[in-house]
C-alpha cells in the first residue's frame, strides 16, 4: 500500500505508478476503462499524468482487487460506496468545524 504523504511530485507517469504497485502499465489502463473514478490527466502527446488523488484511487482499487480479492463488479460497487461515505464524512466535518467556530465566538462574547 502506498502512503500519499511520501509522494513528492505533482505528477507521476504510468510507469512510475505501475512500479509503485508492482503491476503492468496495461493493468492501469484497463482499470481506467473500468473505474469511472480514475481519470488521470493526459498531456498533448496523450501520456497519462497521475496525481496524488489518482494514486489514492488506484490504491483503493488495488486493495479491493488484489488484497481483498473482490470481483471487478464487486470492487466497482465497493469503491462507489467508499467514495460516497468519504464525501458524507467531509460534509459532516465541515459542518462541525463551522459549529465549533460559532460556539467559540459565542464563548468569547460571554467572557
Explain this structure to me?
The protein has one domain (4-110): Multidrug-efflux Transporter Regulator, Chain: A, Domain 2 (Orthogonal Bundle). 66% of the residues lie in helices and 4% in strands. The protein contains 4 helices and 2 strands. It has helices spanning 14-21, 25-34, 52-67, 72-110, and strands at 41-42, 48-49. Strand 1 and strand 2 form a beta hairpin. Helix 3 (52-67) crosses helix 4. The longest helix is centred in the last third of the chain and has 39 residues, at 72-110. It starts with 13 loop residues before the first helix and ends with a helix.
Q: What's the level 1 CATH class?
A: Mainly Alpha
Question: Pairing-aware structural class of the strands and helices?
Answer: mainly alpha
Strand order of the largest sheet: 1-2
What percentage of the residues does DSSP assign to strands (E)?
Answer: under 5%
User: Which fold name fills CATH's third level, the topology?
Assistant: Multidrug-efflux Transporter Regulator, Chain: A, Domain 2
Radius of gyration: 19 Å
* Unreliable segments of 5+ consecutive residues: none
What sequence of helices (H) and strands (E) makes up the elements?
Answer: HHEEHH
- In whole angstroms, the N-to-C terminal distance is 49 Å
Helix content: 55-70%
Main sheet overview: 2 strands, antiparallel
Total count of strands: 2
Amino acid at each position: 500500500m502506498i502512503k500519499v504523504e511520501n509522494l513528492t511530485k505533482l505528477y507521476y507517469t504510468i510507469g512510475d505508478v505501475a512500479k509503485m504497485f508492482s503491476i503492468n502499465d496495461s493493468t492501469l489502463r484497463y482499470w481506467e476503462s473500468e473505474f469511472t473514478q480514475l481519470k488521470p490527466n493526459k498531456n498533448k502527446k496523450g501520456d497519462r499524468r497521475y496525481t496524488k488523488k489518482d494514486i489514492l484511487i488506484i490504491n483503493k482499487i488495488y486493495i479491493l482487487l488484489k488484497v481483498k480479492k473482490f470481483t471487478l463488479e464487486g470492487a466497482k460497487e465497493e469503491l462507489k460506496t467508499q467514495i460516497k461515505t468519504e464525501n458524507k464524512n467531509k460534509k459532516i466535518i465541515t459542518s462541525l468545524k463551522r459549529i465549533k467556530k460559532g460556539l467559540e465566538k459565542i464563548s468569547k462574547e460571554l467572557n
